[in-house]
Write the structure tokens for this entry.
Amino acid sequence: MNFAFPSLAEPQHFSLAEKLLFSTLALASVLLFWRRFGVVLGKILHSKKDPGFHLAPILPRIRDFVWEVALQAKVIRQRPAAGLAHAFVFWAFCAFVLVTLNHCAAVFGLGFLSPDGYLGRAYFLFAALFALACAVGILGLFVRRFFLRPKWLGEKLSWESGFIALLIFALMATYLAAFFTADASPSTRALWWLHTLALFVFLPILPYTKHLHLVLSPFTVFFSRGGFSRIPPLVGDEDFGLVAGDSLTQIVSLQAYSCVECGRCTEHCPANNTSKLLNPKQVVLGLRDYLNDLGPASTEPLLGKYNAQQAVFECTTCGACEFQCPVGIEHLPILIGLRRGAVNTGTWEDDHGGQLFLNLERGSNALGISPSERDKFIQRQQLPIFDGTQEYCLWLGCMGSYDPKGREIVADLARVMRHLGITFGVLRKEKCTGDPARRLGNDLVFQQLAEANLEAMAKNKVKKIVAICPHCVRTIQEDWKEFGAPPIIEHHSEFLARHLHQLQPAQNQEKIVFHDPCYLGRYRNIYDEPRAVASLAGTIVEAPRSHERSFCCGAGGGLAFLGEESGERIGQVRAAELAATGAEIVGTACPFCNSMFRDAFAADSAAPQLLDIAQIAARALPVREPGNGGV
Amino acid sequence: MKIVVAIKQVPDRDEPVRIDSAGKWIDESDLQFAMNEPDAHALEEALLLKEKSGDDGSEVIVLSAGPERVATTLREALAKGADRALHILADDLASRDALGVAQLLAAAIRPEKPDLVLTGLQSEDLGQGQTGVILAELLGLPHSTLILHVDKIASGIEVKRELEEGWYQTIQLPTPAVLTIQSGGNKLRYATLMGIKRAKNKELRAIAAAGLVSTAPPTVVLEKLSLPQRKKSTQMLEGTPKQAAAALVEKLRTEARAL
């Protein structure tokens, strides 16, 4: 067959000297590669096994692998231009597996892809398309890193990245150039040897640089913990979380070595964006440096030289980092693990934190308010007590029980539920779900609260719960599982969205911007239901950062209970962003977000109205239903 | 330094209080209990002293008298860092007076021969403020009350004592001595998982009250317990704003004692 397209030129014969040279270079390259990679692999494998890790179910793992690794979905989606360029580099590497195998085999006359045969010629052209895309891509990425210099790639220029880019370009260029030479010509042989050299220099460099992710990241994605912010159980009497090298597990070590330093985690971190010390990328790299210097058997604390305790306690657990990571690093279990290591051993000393734990230890709620106040609220609002006959248990939570705004939200939700004819009751006594203790790493208090609550729920025959707070929903549904079987729980946005057809839109239609709470959006994947309810108030406008990119209000991770923040206040930054959309209403679905924005808007007389979706749903109801007195 | 901390388990301060059917004590069913706060501060001060002394074999022993449920509070003290615990089992604590309780505690403390005995200034339920002082007398030891800080010095201890209106007193005492501790001198530490796990291996020894001291009839008997009657009264203050304001300040100072 005769093709109009050019074909790949290859040297047809290799001398004995060439064979020997090739073999020596190959052996040296592989040995140098292993010299470093073997050490890294050793550090990972010698780390503790992960308790609670299950390979099954395997289908979600395969699905995630195909989506994130093969199709490069996360890489492209969150940074489209650079992501696509990287994707082509990756796909070119995949296409080049056969090309490279053939390249090496050809030295010994064992080449299996012939440029004359139909299959070989087609394949070489196929690879050439990718080589072209890759060459263009790598050039673009080089320009981005060295000339455009995005902040998230770090202050220092990475010469190692430059060199790797050069090697990749060389590999593609030497391949493509061979389409324009003849088999017998010396330039073909030169190109062939240049390609070979580039290959054998590239391989041993890999394990010394972040390009190790080429080897590791497919495994990192495949062997992830699963879920989102999946906090592992503590096992035995000596396990307190991530205290020292010997508490690092295989998953953590694997993830630490997989970091590509892209900085996507830091780019979206609310703490980092408001001048705080926390830098999620540096937390992971700090662990990597620790492993490189001290190894997985060391008893030196992880928080100290390699990572600052202060930084770790600035995290709001919003999850923007973990959600973004294209190589599957799970930042939240790492950050919470480091907090556990400090709190469970008593090495975290914080006035407000200590007071929070003492409040939770003795009282029952995180706010340190007398439980009789909750009783008074229930009486004033005439909320029915749950007795096992009603359909729903309405869970108030600490904010719904004690915070003035939280109480308004509960009162309005109760009005809506009465209007819909849905039976519900509230528990006589509630203890905090333990969310702040859980996110701050206090397993003692969290276990006590979870067990006490599960017992109370079983005793009261609670089957279905609806709650106004995404933190309560998450903690009850996921975190309590470690200590028992929690009842089914949903967030009030899910409940209200189902009954939307029975709710009236407001007479006065206004512009409304909905703020996606971290624990409802990224944690629970709920974006449309609250918007459906919010649209009862008018037209929805979106903040620049919305849906999975929503910017935290700053209250999560127990931070609402700690002291003054340094730098700018996260809640104020977000409130300003929401107000700048020009919306007349800011819609929320979390009492914590609500209280943070209430505080931020307090000083601003031109601030938009702040309404929870329950309040929006209740607005069009006939006024003065029973119990609609003061809160 | 060997330090004994005497603590009391009291109803949690936020619990609603109901008088029992006999009218002589509160109805304890359904109540949550916690460590008496001034005693928690006494424990904190003892633990700080132990930590400050480094590794000289200092020991903190916690002691409490009461029914079975008191063991939880003792375990909490062990979890916070005390070395061992003594539980004087007594189901009838409510019917003993301060002298009776102090006699129980003294009998348990004497064989330990401690350098320092710390206890809270007063309890959150009865608030008599006597047990610590009587204990010192029974043990024949010098004592000081309302203490915020303790420091070890060559001749014994130096303590900071709280007086009224923001005044403090510094006193030096020889050891052994008894101190009653006021709340607020330090931030209390929280119980940690590591503390609870380590506490599993620490000694908690129970002693029957009867074995310690022969029961004598109490010298003080609680006749009746009742909730205060809530009265509401309104006083109209006459005169010019200046006169009314002066009268108001006088009433707040002398009658309401709010100033």
